[in-house]
TrEMBL record, chains A, B:
It is a single-pass type II membrane protein. The gene is Large2. Keywords: Glycoprotein, Glycosyltransferase, Golgi apparatus, Manganese, Membrane, Metal-binding, Multifunctional enzyme, Signal-anchor, Transferase, Transmembrane, Transmembrane helix. Pfam families: Glyco_transf_49, Glyco_transf_8. GO terms for cellular component: Golgi membrane. Pathway: Protein modification; protein glycosylation. This is LARGE xylosyl- and glucuronyltransferase 2 isoform X2. Its main location: Golgi. Bifunctional glycosyltransferase with both alpha-1,3-xylosyltransferase and beta-1,3-glucuronyltransferase activities involved in the maturation of alpha-dystroglycan (DAG1) by glycosylation leading to DAG1 binding to laminin G-like domain-containing extracellular proteins with high affinity and in a phosphorylated-O-mannosyl trisaccharide dependent manner. Elongates the glucuronyl-beta-1,4-xylose-beta disaccharide primer structure by adding repeating units [-3-Xylose-alpha-1,3-GlcA-beta-1-] to produce a heteropolysaccharide. Supports the maturation of DAG1 more effectively than LARGE1. It comes from Mus caroli.
Amino acid sequence: MLPRGRPRAMGAAVLLLLLLVVGFFLFGRDPEYGLGTTATLDEDPYGSRNLSASSPQLLLPPKCEMLHVAIVCAGYNSSREIITLTKSLLFYRKNPLHLHLITDAIARNILETLFRTWMVPALVVSFYDAEELKPLVSWIPNKHYSGLYGLMKLVLPSILPPSLAQVIVLDTDVTFSSDIVELWALFGRFSDKQVVGLVENQSDWYLGNLWKNHRPWPALGRGFNTGVILLWLDRLQQTGWEQMWKVTAKRELLTLMATSLADQDIFNAVIKEHPHLVHPLPCVWNVQLSDHTLAERCYLEAADLKVIHWNSPKKLRVKNKHAEFFRNLHLTFLGYDGKLLRRELFGCPNQFPPGAEQLQQALAQLDEEEPCFEFRQQQLTVHRVHITFLPHQPPPPRPHDVTLVAQLSMDRLQMLEALCRHWPGPMSLALYLTDEEAQQFLHFVETSPVLSVRKDVAYHVVYQDGPLYPVNQLRNVALAQALTPYVFLSDIDFLPAYSLYDYLRASIEQLELDSRRKTALVVPAFETLHYRFSFPNSKAELLTLLDAGSLHTFRYHEWPQGHSSTDYSRWREAQAPYRVQWSADYEPYVVVPRDCPRYDPRFVGFGWNKVAHIIELDAQEYEFLVLPEAFSIHLPHTPSLDISRFRSSPTYRNCLQALKEEFHQDLSRRYGSAALKYLTALQQARSRA
Amino acid sequence: MLPRGRPRAMGAAVLLLLLLVVGFFLFGRDPEYGLGTTATLDEDPYGSRNLSASSPQLLLPPKCEMLHVAIVCAGYNSSREIITLTKSLLFYRKNPLHLHLITDAIARNILETLFRTWMVPALVVSFYDAEELKPLVSWIPNKHYSGLYGLMKLVLPSILPPSLAQVIVLDTDVTFSSDIVELWALFGRFSDKQVVGLVENQSDWYLGNLWKNHRPWPALGRGFNTGVILLWLDRLQQTGWEQMWKVTAKRELLTLMATSLADQDIFNAVIKEHPHLVHPLPCVWNVQLSDHTLAERCYLEAADLKVIHWNSPKKLRVKNKHAEFFRNLHLTFLGYDGKLLRRELFGCPNQFPPGAEQLQQALAQLDEEEPCFEFRQQQLTVHRVHITFLPHQPPPPRPHDVTLVAQLSMDRLQMLEALCRHWPGPMSLALYLTDEEAQQFLHFVETSPVLSVRKDVAYHVVYQDGPLYPVNQLRNVALAQALTPYVFLSDIDFLPAYSLYDYLRASIEQLELDSRRKTALVVPAFETLHYRFSFPNSKAELLTLLDAGSLHTFRYHEWPQGHSSTDYSRWREAQAPYRVQWSADYEPYVVVPRDCPRYDPRFVGFGWNKVAHIIELDAQEYEFLVLPEAFSIHLPHTPSLDISRFRSSPTYRNCLQALKEEFHQDLSRRYGSAALKYLTALQQARSRA
């Protein structure tokens, strides 16, 4: 497929003169059709509206040619931004893409997980450690909100692989509304001397007339914006770029003290000195919605906006009379279901990410007519996972600390504030959301006075895919992200006793547990049927409510076997922790070391998901110790759709039964005759049913 | 802006020869870049791979030129399909569009409301009555699933306005993945004689070798598919199209008895006879995913698919090894938030639909810093409304019939089955959903044995927009769509007595109400706090539960004034309907004539939305009559996020107070001193608070 480029290149050289003539007639109406839209906002003050910039016929690279994109990304918020940018890129692209991400440890942690689970064909992602680059730019005083990270764009030519001849560099706050291949093709218009492609800055900043005593860095006319850069890397190396920008920056810093706009000031100062280096790009490739933007001069003329740049610190809230229009473009990708971008590029080789082909085969082998097809499909589904979706402060290392682990979907969001009031310690929560809901969730947390201050709560978004709720996959995501030695495995509709967090830590210390000891501390579970009730402040108050019938032991009427082993009557009187034995269908809420067994992901939808986990603990010889002062209370809520389906569908119940049996077969394989008691218990339960 | 086309046209004529040469060199690699992708699946059996079809340089029409699209659409399901198609069209389009919709009464009713409330700039929609066209094609025997409607494409040249020279005709089951202007530009490649542009049929159907004794209509080679047609209308008229197709059809029907593929058979038969009429289009403009499709030969080569055609009766469930890829393209628009398409076309005149500019101004005048800004904005929001989202059988006219009216969002979906069991009569339900949720809802109904058979339940989707729940706007949508003389204004979390539907109709008859009499029949409201309880089969059973404390009168503890006027102690003993008086904060569930006052849409979010409606009824001198055997029971559910916000936010409560006061000012304006009692009541309530 690839070698076709060569005759094209020859043809192109021969035909360039011919095209210039053709172009004039055919594309005279051109400002209306985008590609050739003027490179400067005013008349052509420094000769940039040359033929190469306004001639519209682009020579696109061959179908399967890889395009390279570099982005600097640091922290939680930029990690969310870059995903929206990537969605817009992937939506329009028709070429394989290689993302070169220069990240801090936070962004890398988030984005590695995200891209691995996203499994987009024909997308390669490489990471570069921003920490290592800091010394290269930290000597430059900078006042811009991007901090040191903005400046890192200056050193890309020295850190990207030498094999890379060209790269497009993007800020995280841009959105594509066209195929990046058209931007890539603009490299073809560079003259021999040009090494960097940029769009003119769409504000008067560099003209120095914005306010009195405003003294910007030197720039050619309005200067250029560095939100979108075409870098011709090997030429930059040959030109001595590194030396060049450092000399310029050091000289200007003698009088200017600091950069105001980070790398952009330095790029502009270099270009002012060496104007032949820059290839001006059409304005539509970087429509800048900064405060006091002049972008209107660009987009009112153009038919087709290619890249929107939210380069105001206000981002989407920037004031602009067409803000709604641009926001809609951005919101398109903010809420876009990322799994729809798992699209192959027909006819391109080697495009599948690790595991994708095996997964496709496994899915293809499922029998759509089989009654439990939906279960099988759901179990195989790889969900996109965005860990630490919001800014998070990891807990300091403390030997007895406990993280509350739970999972939820949008319909339990209203539990979060109450939960935060009841549990002052770290939490790790997995949320099962659509891309659109993730944005609503973000808004919900940001506007909640209770949630917005709790940086010790880590939210991990697992994106929805498929008809059944992957409850145990969610629990495993939250569990894997817990950072303390112990975890409290809870459910979102439970509120722990106000004292539980302190009490658990004290108990762990007093019992001299250490994380190698296989102990599961049981937190007895109760429930109220009332939406409004006053939460007991002590075990004594709880017992009073229990005796008054305002509280019950959890599922006493519907599913007593789930908690009977906890032995509530003993608990009433207990003054010290006591050991209890596993019995069939036991599913207490427990505190265990973080390295405890994972939940079995085969259980999707409703039913038996915790029971299987407790069996696993018992099989691994965890000791169950009930804590005498611990309790947690279940609040009422509308039954989930999954429960409704379970209750109404015999197929659903049969499939759950099949899953249980498979689980037991696996248990026997792993634990041998020791697992016999679980199977016996299951069979007894079955014969009772 | 417009007159620029003229020099272009001249230039184009002069340069055509030049281009043919240029094109050869520049676009030799062309199969990879879509525009010139081969017009036939095999070698070129009938000369269609001519220069006009493979030369890739398109002359696009001027920026603001209107493009015309005609679509035949009938019934509920096609009305949903056409919206997805329209979203894909609007997403990529950069020109004004005029949709010419040939509809039956059902589709027209749905789509008129939808497009009016969608308020998309630069989109014009005209309707044509399919009923009037039926006689023109009903003489043609047809076996295709599209019925008579497919055949109507044949008569478009005679019914579209004579001013229309060209039109693109689309089936409802196509999805665009590119800008339709590129398709429109292909008119520019028609020779003088060509009148219809079509893509080759991507199956062997017309070769007649699919099965033994398969005898298709005559066609040129593989024939053409009519899912996407470029019609050059004035030329067709001049060619005597009407005469031509009728003669051909009548002749073929002598031996073939009926069309198998509707209009497509006839188009092909005409083209077989007059091959010079057809301009073959590149295959990417109609990638056909029929059963046994050969489309792979097209899309594996092409870089860029322009239009996907789901022309199997199985639609999205068609088996194809790349089905997932195509489904993702389609799902993109199925779940796409349609409000994001309310995007203006910069620089084009007269693009705003009726009311849009006033609305924008009103929104622009709101003060974003004002504490009740969100309320004001929500009140002004125009929601897209899709009435009768699912197939619906309107109730037969019956003078005492009652429709249950309610509204819900996704988190109350599990109420629907129970509601259907309790209310065997007609219902009109408004659902507040995102586009994505609307698809989940569709799936939910289709897979529910209870819901899928209830054709007397009309579901009206109101698409989400804004942070506050527009409860009264939703009620008004459901109310406006009720088709019986009476309506029972209920809430989704209430289950009516099993006998209520019959009892209400009998009561209306016995009380000799007629829809001019201003009577509101009160259905007393109760509540249970238990998720599982056995619903009383009679008033006697209900009273027993009440005495046992398993049931309560509705909100007895939290908001007794809401229902105290109903006078539950009198109801216990009552044998006949009795009249009650309005009192402050009264909000009973009532049965009223369909033409009752609408709900006040200013109440958004939680609070006072029904109270205001009952005041309105009282102010209009409705008589409140409590029915002695009627009852309805509220089931518990998780509090909505809006209620949580109300409880926790003083701003929210203050804004609600401001709304109440404005409501009372309006009341005084409309009812004068008669409205004084409501204001007094409000002030008393306030002083108590």
